[in-house]
Amino acid sequence: MHESQKPGFFYGYAIVTACFLIEACGIGAYVAFGVFFKPLLAEFGWSRATVSGATSLAYLMMGFLGVVAGSLNDRFGPRMVMAVSGVFCGCGYFLLSRLDSLWQLYLLYGLVVGIGLSSVDVIALTVTARWFVRRRGMMTGIIKVGTGVGQLVLPLLASIWIINSGWRHAFAYLGIVVMVFLIGSGLMLRRDPSLKGHVPDGRNNQAPGQTTLLEGGLSPSEAARTPQFWIYCIVNFLVMNCLLIIVLHIVPHASDIGLDAIKAASVVSAIGASSMVGRLLTGALVDRIGTGKVMVTCLMLLICSFLWLQVARDAWMLYLFAAIYGAGHGGFFTSISPTVARLFGISSHGVLLGIVLFSGNVGGAIGPVVAGLIFDVARSYQPVFWLMAALCATALVLTPFLKPAVRKG
Asked: Is the pTM of this model over 0.85?
């Protein structure tokens, strides 16, 4: 039975708003952990590789359970999944305010927060992909702007909370904010337009047979037999190595070269601001020129930004890095969900997107730890920056092989 609604109102716009807030709070909170990095090192004397290991565990859990979340969404819908995720994520951050040993960091952040964040990307992106077809790229870009907003706002808020109240209170405040917004936004979600009497993109009064717009594509087993699927997983593995290194290590690097705490955190915020522009442009371009050309452009921007980091020594140089990197970072993330839909269709989009994201999460789990180990040995991030440029160059070489495995429609 369709839920009642006001005539002429397309609920897809409420979906976009909810997904925007989910991305902002979930991913913004994950990125904000970078500003807790040095306070934790100062408090407990842990190494950078040790703290990085907790973030890697969280990211690995996000990817592994993202596959489960995608499958549950495909079968049962997103609301309950997001509510449970909000409870885990909020409680994990809140309980970090009581942190006093390393095992608690790995338990509360690596496992509890990791479980809570596992559904953020896969639910928001899959629900959006089901509600929009012709405007899928643009709407994906808009909700991924939420990631940029979160990355812009939450690290600065966390820095202010740390300065004014200490890192323990800052964790508690962050946990409350995340729980409220993830649960509240999740309750607004609906799996697909048929539950509101719509078809994708806002046309009312669904006609018989139009559900095929939502259900065409390969099954997970069929997709797994195509080379495109594994190539795309490898591309995400390589690129996410780099992106998560930046998320965790750019604030410590900025501090190492002389920026104060607020300026160092503002580099992350500048990345968030630039990524918002990149996400919007990417969303529009995906609908016009396709995901392949967009991905190539994003990878080239990332490579240039990592090369620039080799010589960046002043604040303005890091802000320029943030502008270039942020555009490539935001654009790449925005292209993932539309690329999965283009390559494999929409019927199993949730679980396929979850697997693709998981491959990236594995890379994202490895990258920060490797970067921390390299720094602990070399006392410099320069070898890390070269490694990131090489990984993205390898991904760039693989992109021409990503041809659609199915035809749209």
From this structure: no
